Amino acid sequence: MKLLFVVNPISGGVDKEPFLKEAKTMCDNYGLDYKIFKTTGRSDEAEIKVMLEEFQPDKVISVGGDGTTLFTAVALLNTDIPMGIIPLGSANGMAVELGVSEKPIQAFRDIVMSNIIGDLDLVRVNKKHYSIHIGDVGINATIVNGYEKDENRGMATYAKYFIEALSNVTPFKMKIECNDKVFHSEAVMLGVCNARKYGTGVPLNSEGNPMDGLFEIVLIEKINVNVLIKAGLSSFDETFLDSQNNSVISTSKAKIKFNEPQLLQLDGEVIGEFKTLKVKILKGAVKLITSKQNVYI
Predict the structure, then answer these.
(1) Residues 6+ apart with CB under 8 A from 78
(2) For domain 2-114, which CATH number applies: 3.40.50.10330, 3.30.420.40, 1.10.10.60, 3.20.20.70?
(3) What residues are paired with 282 via a beta bridge?
(4) E-state strands within 165-252
(5) Measured between alpha carbons, how far is 91 from 166 in angstroms, rounded to an integer?
(6) Residue 83 above 50 pLDDT?
(7) In the chain, what are the domain boundaries?
(8) Mean per-residue pLDDT for 38-60?
(9) Which of 70-74, 264-268, 275-279 has the lowest mean pLDDT?
């Protein structure tokens, strides 16, 4: 078996070397061929394509957070190579959604041993941007934008920008065309969800299923600041949704037009400002190495 590890060395401020050292030992012990690709932020897309072509791995393993998972999934588009996830980022929302073990070395064992390959959806935005987990415009995109520019990582840094954003919540207007209907709305945040919860544990909707060929548009019309502060950034259950003014639309494609350009983030990466979003689900675009711990299987 040939394994390709795709590693983001800086995701979440988490040191990946202890995991890689243990994984290498296991590969050597069991005669598994492997290579390691470390992202640098420079020509990563082109370089991983070359490695995939030359090495021809049987399985690809994403080592990092949600952004690394997305990068790996997009690199594998239009191939039959399955991918697995090692959760080693600041937010591992997609790994949690998919029942991946929170212990990295156990997640690695599961990937090597499993013969269960699921069809995981991918969301495409404006034909060239992608999301595998959750994207949004509004308050959370502002939080992520601040977090991205900070040299510090981890939940404490995220919390700083979370608190700052709460004091500057501004509603924006939009028109949504989907399911042969037109919706006019005003919200402080719009989520484009292929899953249910952020990596922080905050749930956006209870309907999300990343393997059903649909995504959810979630409109948060008003932020209940007192509930958020009381709950903190630790643990939320789905009763939290009852305290917020949310609307949820399930669809396979949509056109969203804002009155003013809005900042967009996808899976923890700020993409830029857009006045129009054309969103489409790519059903089963990713071959996912998974297990029976995945509630969607």
Answers:
(1) none
(2) 3.40.50.10330
(3) 122
(4) 172-178, 181-187, 189-193, 215-222, 245-251
(5) 20
(6) yes
(7) 2-114, 129-282
(8) 96
(9) 264-268
Where is average pLDDT lowest: 58-72, 213-227, 275-289?
213-227
The span from the CA of 102 to the CA of 113, in Å, is 17
Of 266, 286, 267, which Cα lies nearest the Cα of 84?
A: 286
pLDDT on residue 244: 52
Q: Between these two residues, 66 and 62, which has the higher pLDDT value?
A: 62
Determine the Cα–Cα distance for residues 143 and 126; give it in Å rounded to an integer. 22
The per-residue pLDDT for range 112-145, each reduced to its tens digit, is 999 999 999 999 999 999 999 998 888 767 666 6
| 189 pLDDT tier (thresholds 50, 70, 90) | confident
By the 10 Å C-beta count (0-12 exposed, 13-18 middle, 19+ buried), 27 is classed as middle
Residue pair 62/72 in contact by the 8 Å Cβ criterion? yes
Tokens standing for residue 278:
């054309």
Greatest Cα pair distance, the chain, in angstroms, is: 60
Phi, psi of 22 (to 5 degrees): -70, -40
Secondary-structure class of domain 129-282 per CATH: mainly beta
Mean pLDDT of the chain: 86
Q: CA 1 to CA 67: how far, in whole Å?
A: 26
Listed residue (173, 131, 153, 168) closest to 271, CA to CA:
131
